[in-house]
Amino acid sequence: VVSTGPVTRVQAPEVVRLGIEVLRAARTPLDNALIQVQQLVEADLCGRPSHGMQRLPTLVARIANGVLDPRAAPVVEVRAPSMILIDGRSGLGPLAAHAAVDELLRAAGEAGIAIATIRGAGHLGMLAPYVERLASEGLVGIGLTTSEALVHPAGGRVALIGTNPIAIGIPAEPHPFVLDMSTAAISAGEVMAHADRGQPLRDGCAVDGEGRPTNDPAAALEGAISPFGGPKGYGLGLGIELVVALLTDTGVGTDVRGTLDTDRLSTKGDVFIAIHPDRLGGSAAGERLTGYLDSLRISPPAPGFERVLIPGDRMREERRRRGAEGIAYPAAVWRRLVELREQPQGAGRV
Amino acid sequence: VVSTGPVTRVQAPEVVRLGIEVLRAARTPLDNALIQVQQLVEADLCGRPSHGMQRLPTLVARIANGVLDPRAAPVVEVRAPSMILIDGRSGLGPLAAHAAVDELLRAAGEAGIAIATIRGAGHLGMLAPYVERLASEGLVGIGLTTSEALVHPAGGRVALIGTNPIAIGIPAEPHPFVLDMSTAAISAGEVMAHADRGQPLRDGCAVDGEGRPTNDPAAALEGAISPFGGPKGYGLGLGIELVVALLTDTGVGTDVRGTLDTDRLSTKGDVFIAIHPDRLGGSAAGERLTGYLDSLRISPPAPGFERVLIPGDRMREERRRRGAEGIAYPAAVWRRLVELREQPQGAGRV
Q1: Is-contact A239 B179, C-beta < 8 A?
Q2: Chain A, 291-310: which have a CB under 8 Å from a chain B CB?
Q3: How far is CA B116 from CA A115, A273, B33, B40, B246, in A?
Q4: If B39 and its partner were Cys, which of A2, A116, A324, B94 is the partner (CB 3.0–4.6 Å)?
Q5: Under 8 Å CB-to-CB from B306, ≥6 apart: which residues?
Q6: Which of B168, B230, B277 has its CB closest to that of A247?
Q7: Which residues of B fall within a CB distance of 8 Å from A290?
């Protein structure tokens, strides 16, 4: 652990150890703690701190408040060769998501396409690792999740739609294509970070309480986050909200709870779809895909850009770099995590 | 037919009649002509002229040049209960797409989820009618298509990615949710229309030949169209390119041909996925969805907006209005269609 000014740099294995100790103190079985913490640390390694260890205090408080059961095992029902229904039993999200991937690896190989729906699970974290697992095994993987309503509809001003991410994993060499993106223009965490630093938001990120576009993060906190890409991003985010709610029989809009708060049961849903290209006769295309992605990477960049990136490339580079150099946490975040370990009895406070 | 200045207003049934006569003269069986023309007129009714009757001259030229076979019937292979492979046999796109929907309606009811891949079919037209058919029968429908490379990657400058649309249909009352959007910031047809009118493009629509953002439509024609929504829209469009190419074993990037030109076989692909909410236990969510969509519609609009729209709402209103008032074609477009009917021997010219 190296603290320099406002930043504390920690090697990933040490972060994992701390996370496991914290969750163990909160009555979490070791296996479950490991899966949960690895998912959090993965986000920090990839440069997505909003899905990283800074969420651990919320998880611990949710356990203390009885709305997250760290001992629960997801219940898997295979309703048909290509239909898997998972009840998270108010347990840790990554357990349910990895159970979905396990089942899909088997089911998509048999049926060509399979779907797993998840309800009642905690926050999954980044979707990337799940679709990456599917893609690494030769499958096309698609992940969709609902989340708390923070985004206004295009032409509207009230936060009624989740930041609903979509993830797509596609087999390719030397590593899969991995897209994992929220349908919001910015995350709530980034808005708060901008407010803390007194830094203006990019255009198009948010509206104020009257629905006017704003660059002021404080005004944005009174208003709502904008969908990315205007009406099209709105349509996509709303489509994800509806598909997930309908297929998992979970909440919509402001009824979605349980990933940001510390006292509500999870009412969001998650959907994964896996498709087997070889069963569909598409295996011959695999090599062309790799060549095509390389042709994008070496295509001339626009002025002001160094090179063209493929989704997943930067994530992979960040992971490698932080794996070697350690993860730089804001000192306050790391202090909070150390406190959590040292005062487990106070774990309920957030 | 009412011509006022540069616009000719025609009732939909008369447009259909003209379209059928044109295709009949180009050796198209009546049933096939009807399905193709209905799909084109539907786009004009919905206010999407880029997918409407203005494409008919290209179709006729493609038939004359032997790269589109108007008599071909798609060949359907049901490889597994949830896997349908369709070979369009270089025939009309809407025949293959409706065959996919027919099969999916049956297959998704049995398997819960099913996928249909299409290769070797002509341009499908708007995806909306296909996913709307699935949604009207109670299914979640997803449609993905590749198309000619007109879009540059985020941070790049060369057109290497299709305008790759995604469509999502979801059952709801009183009518389904229907999203049908390209992943490009603007269509090529709109860029050309702006160039004709000497009208500047909105910000973010295109780059010039050097990769610099431009509002000049003439410069855009020398450059490339931008993805909608920056890096996220780029990631989504690229994801669609890869998924469709891999699952249908069709072209990627600049290898995709056969929807805009008149002399190349179709090398694009199409994918439809249908999911049965009732089989997954999601039927109870249907009523909540309808209430949620209504809560969005009545939510307060942002300044400068009259109301909040749900994807599909405007399309439906436009269809109703033009169904009553007739379709307003640019006089030159309508004249070209009438010429096509009157000089079928010259149909090969475009």
Answers
A1: yes
A2: 292-293, 295-296, 299-303, 305, 307-310
A3: 15, 14, 23, 22, 13
A4: B94
A5: none
A6: B277
A7: none
Report the b/e string of A243-263 with b at 16+ CB within 10 A. bbbbbbbbbbbeebbbbebbe
Predicted local confidence at residue B348, as pLDDT:
46
What single string gives the DSSP state of each residue in A119-173? EEE-----SHHHHHHHHHTT-EEEEEE---EEEPPTTB-S--EE---EEEEE--S
How far is CA A223 from each of CA A108, A151, A217, rounded to the nearest angstrom?
A: 43, 9, 10
Q: In whole angstroms, what is the distance from residue A238 CA to residue A221 CA?
A: 21
Which pLDDT value is given to residue B154?
98
Q: A172 to chain B: which residues are within 8 Å by CB? A: 242
pLDDT at residue number A323: 97
pLDDT tens for B279-298 read 888 767 778 899 999 999 99
Q: Work out the burial of residue A109: count CB atoms within 10 Å of its CB; fewer than 13 is exposed, 13-18 middle, 19 or more buried.
A: middle
Q: Which of B161, B235, B279 sits opposite A311 (nearest CB)?
A: B235
Evaluate the CA torsion angle B100, B104, B107, B112 in order and state its sign. Answer: positive
Residue B328 burial (C-beta neighbours within 10 Å; 0-12, 13-18, 19+): middle
Cross-chain Cβ contact A155/B239 below 8 Å: no
Point out the residue among A161, A211, A232 whose CB comes nearest to the CB of B302: A211
Mutation target among B246, B256, B297, B298 for the A interface, most CBs of A within 10 A: B246
Element (H or E) spanning B60, and its range? helix B56-64
Q: Which residue of A has its CA nearest to B273?
A: A113
Q: Does A209 touch chain B (CB under 8 A)?
A: no
A118 vs A83: CA distance, rounded Å: 11
**Distance of alpha carbon B45 from alpha carbon B11, whole angstroms:** 10
Please state the rounded mean pLDDT for residues B65-78.
98
Any idea what DSSP says for residue B319?
A: H
Give me B312's structure tokens.
């599909």
Rounded to a whole number of angstroms, the distance from the CA of A84 to the nearest CA of chain B is: 8
Q: What's the start-to-end Cα distance of chain B, in Å? A: 24
Residue B178: its H or E element = strand B177-181
Please tell me the distance in Å from B335's CA to the nearest CA on chain A. 34
How far apart, in Å, do the first and last CA atoms of chain A sit?
24
Determine the distance in angstroms separating the CA of A285 from the nearest CA of chain B, rounded to an integer.
5
Task: HSE, CB side, 13 Å, CA atoms: give it for residue A220.
Answer: 30
The full 3-state SS of B244-285, as one line of letters, equals HHHHHCCCCHHHCCCCCCCCCCCCCEEEEEEECCCCCCCCCH
Residue B80's φ and ψ, nearest 5 degrees, are: -155, 170
User: Burial, B332: exposed, middle or buried (Cβ in 10 Å; 0-12, 13-18, 19+)?
Assistant: exposed
Dihedral pair phi/psi, residue B180, rounded to 5°: -145, 100
Please name the residues between 43 and 82 in chain A that touch chain B, using a CB distance below 8 Å.
79-82
B 213-232 residues inside an 8 A Cβ radius of A: 228-230, 232
Distance CA A18, CA A136 (A): 29
A170 touching B (Cβ < 8 Å): yes
Residue-wise pLDDT tens digits, B173-219: 889 999 999 999 999 989 988 998 899 999 999 999 999 999 999 99
From chain B, the residues in CB contact with A299 under 8 A are 153, 156-158, 160
- Tokens standing for A196? 């803390």
**How many residues are present in chain B?**
350
| Six token digits for residue B46 | 């919905």
